[in-house]
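[job 4417] fold queue: 2 targets
>>> target A
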Amino acid sequence: MSPRSTKVSKYLAKHLRHAPSEIGLTLQPGGWVAVDDLLRAAGENGFPITYDELVECVETNDKRRYSFDETGDVIRASQGHSVEVDLQLEEREPPEVLYHGTVDRFLPSILSVGLNKGKRHHVHLSKDFETARKVGARRGGPVVLTVDAGRMHRDGHEFFLSANGVWLTDAVPPEYVTKT
């Protein structure tokens, strides 16, 4: 990803996940925003983005954080929102085991009270160990936790799968979490 693409991606993260109103955007159901509105708002707020840059950002983002609808007329962040939005995801049956990446300093709290969504809409879980390790490594020495997702689901907890393959749930009680 080029330095410009990284800047565009961070701009999109801020304004499609956390602060759309700062540039005059309103997320529609599903978290969608008209591409034309996004490009206009970005330009009017001192960060002009071309349509080609937007396409490059969507297509080359290694975490597939953003997606266009089938028409290409609207865009959204796949998950990770801190603003109120209904992503219109359908409940899915998760794999038996999912993973969560974190760091040592959060381990006592997690093992005591579980994983909580904090300011986001959901707890984010990975289907593979390596992705979770990379997520944990963003904040220091990574710790990977195993989540007994199959048992959680059988016990009545809901799971959703975002467009970019991140598993989402409201919370993970401590009895379903073990240090890997």
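>>> target B
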Amino acid sequence: MKVWPYLFALPFVVLYFAFHFYPVLYSFWLSLHDWNGVGRKTFIGLRNYATLLTKDPLFYKALYNTVMIMIMSVPAMILLGMVLAYVIFQLAKGRVFFQTMNFLPYITTPVAIGFIFSFMFDWQTGIVNNMLLKLGLLAEGLQWLQDPLTAKMIIAMMIVWRNLGYFMTIYLAGMTAIPQDIYEAARVDGSTGLHTFTRITLPLLRNITVFLIVTSIIGGLQLFDEPKLLYGGWTASTSGGPDNAALTVIWKFVNDSFITGTRFGYGAATAYMLFVIIVLFSIVSYRIGSGKEEKA
């Protein structure tokens, strides 16, 4: 029996169990206790979960906000990423330049993105209000960041602006992998650009679309950086934005565990409930995507 492969894999396995698998199990065990991080842990069973689901309306508010922002952003990223990739794919010159320019926001730090959008939509000095006022479309500046609906829309815009380059790159890689013989045969048969895109390109990119939808749902339900930096930093005095319209599940988890309280057991229960929700959403989205593929 050869032991060298196991010896080479042993460091990774040990580190994985020590820094990933064990913390996951420990957090579940912690969710069954009442603990403030200092005193003695008190076993309370499923009480944290019962409180979260029956006595904490802010959890449902945070979950609603997270899902609404995800609904606003994910379809836009899928559609715009696909169209942008197709346009760049058709370019004869300058493809690398446009790929790089569109990918730059994805590697921009979230802190910088928070500053950019805070400046853009500021009530007094924001460039958006100034432009609309100069064009005569507004009589006075709007408080974009203080309205619950526009707050969600701005966060969705931040997500789309940041991740559009990533979606474009994935779709562009998928289009490049499609054999050119298929397009040549379509041109011989008289297929136009729109017909080729809808009848050939889109079906062949279905697996990529399913992958992006599933990963977007997983990432969207873990949304934290954009709302936190927009409303929890230097521009805001309260957590969660106006009427908690920007509060997400992860932000609530951070608040309960480390900021407004030190309820580590309750925070662990929130994290595990989010894990269950992510699994359910992922299974549903994957089955819908694979179901369409089987019918096709």
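[job 4417] complete. Note on B: Residues 53-295 form a domain with the MetI-like fold fold (CATH 1.10.3720.10).
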